[in-house]
UniProtKB/TrEMBL annotation:
InterPro entries: Ceramide_glucosylTrfase (IPR025993), Nucleotide-diphossugar_trans (IPR029044). The chain crosses the membrane at residues 6-26, 282-302, 308-329, 341-360. It holds the Pfam family Glyco_transf_21. Pathway: Sphingolipid metabolism; Lipid metabolism; sphingolipid metabolism. PANTHER family: CERAMIDE GLUCOSYLTRANSFERASE (PTHR12726). Its main location: membrane. One of its GO terms (biological process) is glucosylceramide biosynthetic process. It is a multi-pass membrane protein. Gene3D superfamilies: Spore Coat Polysaccharide Biosynthesis Protein SpsA, Chain A (3.90.550.10). GO terms for cellular component: membrane. One of its GO terms (molecular function) is ceramide glucosyltransferase activity. Keywords: Glycosyltransferase, Membrane, Transferase, Transmembrane, Transmembrane helix. This is Ceramide glucosyltransferase. It comes from Acidisarcina polymorpha.
Length: 396
């Protein structure tokens, strides 16, 4: 009769992350192999680019200018800022002067009272947009001239309701930014591909989403979610619930890092994972079995033998490095991924701490304000300051 000691049970549990990593490797290979087919060509409907902006992001002008250099026949770029005192406004007005042939419009204020200012701005821009097909992007995004063609192509299929894609940094000027990139390639993106493999794409990634006004109106539009966090996840989920396909492209845009210190990165990731704890509590709890480093260390602690150390710690690093190289180097064509592999254990240690810290977190900090998440909605701890000229339009 077999008998199991506590040591045997712990050693067995510590092997569970390897099952997850195997699924992640399979999901990543299948995704990038299956996505090699060419996208449809010749589908170029007029597009409204919607950009809610607030404050002056690093390299803001170059980010916005990349949207004015698109190799696309007919599109507009629509910005929405909170008020006329926003420091980004002169940058946008310079943009209209530098690109006179590009259709650029700037609207001031959302004309709404909502907790999530970004979503309130999007609600107004959807109404203001000149065209049915919409591309929504964050202010820190920078794109190549083929961006609109690549992103809009899957919407030629009427079964597709939304399109989203990966994002990578424009450049890495510090070890903190390299650490963040390793986290995205080794942790965040593999998790997304596992979710796609097991349950399909029922989310969208915030830096860029392509959809139509009809798909947004079908669930009530942005005004229906203007007091909730994680609007990107919600848009993808609510469009998928209409029976539409959400397409994840094997294509990466670039984003300009908006953090410089380790503490800024820590709290940025803590905010995101705290929101996920409220939106997907069981999925958040299940993340414990994706954290290979602490489990490998525990296995060595309960059985400190060379065989266990090689199997668990050595196996952990080899599999994590292979996954990072697969997603970053092969899938997303990033250069120099191998130089960052040594940062994987550092990221995994921090990710484990962030996951633990999220259980004690009652608030999130976003754009300089603190919020509670109550019944799935953002509740500001302090009242918002009113914006001037809300609802008016700037004529450049």
């Amino acid at each position: 009769m077999l008998t199991f000691t506590v040591r045997d049970i712990l050693i067995g549990i510590a092997a569970i992350p390897f099952i997850y990593y195997a699924i992640a490797l399979f999901s990543s290979i299948r995704f990038f192999l299956g996505s090699r087919a060419a996208s449809p060509v010749g589908f170029t409907p007029p597009i409204s680019n919607l950009k809610p902006v607030r404050g002056l992001d690093p390299d803001a002008y170059e980010n916005y200018a990349s949207f004015c250099r698109q190799d696309y026949p007919d599109y507009e770029v629509l910005f929405c800022v909170g008020d006329t005192t926003d420091p980004v406004l002169p940058v946008l007005q310079r943009l209209t002067r530098d690109f006179p042939d590009c259709k650029i419009r700037i609207v001031i204020g959302s004309g709404r009272t909502a907790t999530n200012d970004k979503v309130a701005k999007l609600a107004r821009m959807v109404d203001e947009a000149a065209y049915e097909h919409l591309v929504i992007s964050d202010s820190d995004v920078r794109v190549e001239p083929d961006y609109l063609r690549r992103l809009i192509a899957p919407l030629s299929d009427p079964k597709v309701g939304a399109v989203t894609c990966f994002y990578v940094p424009t450049e890495e000027t510090s070890w903190v930014q390299r650490l963040q990139d390793v986290g995205m390639l080794s942790d965040f993106y593999p998790g997304i591909l596992v979710a796609k493999q097991l349950d399909g794409v029922k989310f969208a990634l915030g830096p860029t989403i392509a959809t139509t006004r009809a798909r947004l109106h079908a669930f009530g539009g942005y005004s229906a979610i203007e007091n909730q966090p994680a609007d990107d996840l919600l848009v993808g989920r609510l469009i998928a619930e209409q029976g539409c396909e959400v397409v994840l492209l094997p294509y990466a845009i670039t984003t300009v890092p908006d953090y410089q210190s380790l503490s800024e990165l820590f709290y940025k990731r803590l905010r995101w994972i705290t929101v996920m704890r409220h939106m997907r509590p069981w999925g958040h709890l299940g993340l414990i079995f994706t954290l290979g480093l602490p489990w490998a260390l525990m296995a060595v602690a309960v059985d400190p033998t060379p065989a266990i150390a090689v199997t668990y710690l050595g196996g952990y690093f080899v599999v994590r490095a292979a996954l990072t190289a697969l997603v970053g180097g092969w899938g997303l064509k990033q250069k120099g991924v191998w130089k960052k592999l040594a940062w994987i254990p550092v990221w995994d240690a921090m990710a484990s701490l962030i996951w633990l810290a999220s259980f004690a977190r009652r608030t999130i900090r976003w754009r300089g304000r603190d919020y509670l998440i109550r019944n799935g909605e953002l509740v500001p701890l302090l009242p918002a300051e009113p914006h001037a000229n809300a609802g008016s339009e700037v004529i450049p």
